[in-house]
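To whoever is on call:

I kicked off a structure prediction for a single chain this morning and the downstream step that reads the tokens threw a length-mismatch warning. I double-checked the sequence; it's 438 residues and nothing unusual in it as far as I can see. Pasting both halves so you can look.
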Amino acid sequence: MRDLFVAAVVFGFLPMAFRKPYVGIYLWSWIGYHNPHRLCFGWALNFPWALIIALVTLVALLFSKEPKRIPWTRETSLLLVFMLWILLTTYFAFYADAAWEHYIKFFKIILMTYVTMIAVNTRQRLDGFIWIICISLGFYGIKGGIFTIIHGGVHHVQGPDGTFFGGNNEMALVLAMTIPLLSYLRTQETRGWLRLGLGAAMMLSAIAAIGSQSRGGLLGLVAMGLFLWLKTRNKLMTGLMLVTSVIIIGSIMPQAWYDRMNTIKTYDQDDSSLGRINAWWTAWNVAKIRITGGGMDMFRPDTFQRYAPDPNNVHDVHSIYFEQMGEQGFIGLAMFLTLGVMTWQRCNQIKKLCKKDPERKWAADLAAMIQVSLVGYYTAGTFLGLSYFDLFYHMIAIVVMLWTFVNQPQVSVPVVESKARGRLLPRRFTNKPASGVG
């Protein structure tokens, strides 16, 4: 039944994607973030849904009459250079076959990120894109939060097998990045019932992130929650939701969770932490010797035998920073970090331009929430390895699209006389964006 549902949704919307490429982006994002096929048990489980949707979207975009402009900014230019650098490191990788397999996945993510910036060229489409992300990932936040409450936090909350966020650690990071986007949608929403639902989704997602029992996720969630309160408009309501979430978490989580979280203070006595540190030293040693790093998927026993302080303690790197350092070298790490800094600075520029403009305040709200997501990503990412995950690169794309929107020419509103009342009224019309798409 699940297989048929996924097929009905995908093949039902594909004809629309032929006419409207941004619908293909929505569909591709739903498959990529929600991974509904990974919840199936039949033929749909391994069917190439993303490939089919991507091909349809690219063909539709090619024949579309809409302008096809990539918004070239410092962020999109550096992202292209970063992708080419990883191509170079893949050529010189320790494990070429595995590296090329991972690079193809990464190339597809970046390619569709650029396609997204072409097709999603109005505020309405951008909001729709954010809704797709929040629905797709928020599903696991709501489900995981309810699961944690029902079972008293005894079991780990995890994502679907075979996805970027299948593990509990990755699940926590993804939810910490999603909560600020839910907050943005809640700020813009005028329907009371939907605002209430989005607020509940935020709280349940926070509970699910705690229910993952990820120590790195906890640190990211705390940092994200603090910045969320600082950046949001309604600090009272946000504060109440945060306090309520903390009370619920405190009342349901078992002693085993507290014992695990307390090991943060005694990391030098924890086998898992010591394994990560050993992997971090491995990354450092590789980057010192090889300018191109070891290439994707280099953290394997043979690498540890040659570069690790403890060759027998083979452990996943679990850090976006050391993952980039080891696999892409210091140059790749520098570009990865610079992308984040540029995006943060661009958000500051957007907020400065728009926060006092009632017509563009939504852009300032979204830029602030992107910054909150980045705080969660870079904090939790210290102990979690998701440096190639779609959502980070889509955050960059969202900010680039925002920058394009807020810098479009401002058209003055003509004034006409109302014959009925004898006073001047503004003439209402739809203004086209800078991309030329209505």
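Update from on-call: the warning came from a stale cache, not from the record. Cleared it. Sanity check on the structure: The longest helix spans residues 320-354.
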